[in-house]
Design goal:
single chain; alpha/beta; Spore Coat Polysaccharide Biosynthesis Protein SpsA, Chain A
C-alpha cells in the first residue's frame, strides 16, 4: 500500500531562533506509523538571517516568496502542493506540533478543517497580553455573528485541512488577515470545522503583529468578505 502525503507548511520571516525547534518537534514517527509520507514546506519571506539554511539542514523543502505577508506566503504554498492532508503552523514555536496527530485523527473522522484553539486551551504566562486576549475574543465573536458559524479562536496560527479543501478556497489576503479570510472561505464552501484545545507558548522572539492595526484589518476583512 502506497503512503499518503501529509504536508506541514511553515511560513517564515527571520525565524532562525525557532525554526529548527519547530521542525524537530514535528512527531514524524507517529505520523509515519499512521501510513503518511511527511513533508515539511518552509515558505520564506526572503529572510536575512539563517532561517532557510537551518530549515534545509533539518530536511525541509524551502521556497522563497519575496512578496510580503503571511497570507501571500500561505497562498503560494497552497498553490504549489497536493496532499491528502495539510497543516499550517506558525514558525515561532508558540504552537506545539505535538497536536498534529490528534488533529489528523479528527480530519480522518470526517472534519474538513480542524483548528488548534488557544482560547479553549491553556496559555503560558506572557504568551498573550490582556489586550490581545480581549481583541481575539471580540474578533472571534464578530466572526461567529456575521457568519452564523461557531469558532472559538479565529486568529489561531494552527490549522489542519483535508487536502481537497485548500483548492476550493478563493484567497486574496496577503497579511495577518489571512486566517480571517480563510474562515470566511471555509464557511462559504460549507466545510465542517473541528477544534482541539491547545497550549499556546510564549513567543521567544519579538512579535511581528501590530495589535490594533492588524486587529482592525482583520475586522474589516470579516465585514467586506461577508457583504
Amino acid at each position: 500500500m502506497s503512503s499518503k502525503n501529509l504536508y506541514i507548511i511553515l511560513p517564515t520571516l527571520n525565524e532562525e531562533e525557532t525554526i529548527g525547534r519547530v521542525i524537530d518537534e514535528i512527531p514524524r514517527d507517529i505520523l509515519e506509523d499512521k501510513g503518511y509520507l511527511v513533508k515539511v514546506l518552509v515558505v520564506d519571506g526572503n529572510s536575512t538571517d539563517l532561517t532557510r539554511q537551518i530549515a534545509r539542514e533539518r530536511g525541509a523543502e524551502v521556497i522563497i516568496e519575496p512578496r510580503k505577508g503571511k497570507g501571500r506566503a500561505m497562498r503560494t504554498a497552497f498553490e504549489q502542493i497536493k496532499a491528502d492532508f495539510v497543516f499550517m503552523l506558525d514558525a515561532d514555536y508558540t504552537y506545539p506540533a505535538a497536536y498534529i496527530p490528534d488533529m489528523l485523527d479528527m480530519l480522518q473522522q470526517g472534519y474538513d478543517v480542524v483548528i488548534g484553539s488557544r482560547l479553549k486551551g491553556e496559555r503560558q504566562k506572557g504568551s498573550m497580553s490582556r489586550l490581545n486576549v480581549i481583541g481575539n475574543h471580540l474578533l472571534t465573536l464578530m466572526a461567529d455573528v456575521l457568519y452564523l458559524r461557531r469558532i472559538s479562536d479565529l486568529c489561531t496560527g494552527c490549522w489542519g485541512f483535508r487536502g481537497e479543501v485548500i483548492h476550493r478556497l478563493h484567497l486574496t489576503a496577503d497579511g495577518f488577515n489571512f486566517e480571517a479570510e480563510l474562515f470566511t472561505q471555509i464557511v462559504k464552501n460549507g466545510c465542517s470545522i473541528g477544534e482541539i484545545p491547545i497550549l499556546y507558548r510564549r513567543r521567544p522572539t519579538p512579535a511581528k503583529l501590530s495589535s490594533i492595526k492588524d486587529g482592525l484589518n482583520i475586522g474589516w476583512t470579516l465585514i467586506t468578505r461577508r457583504f
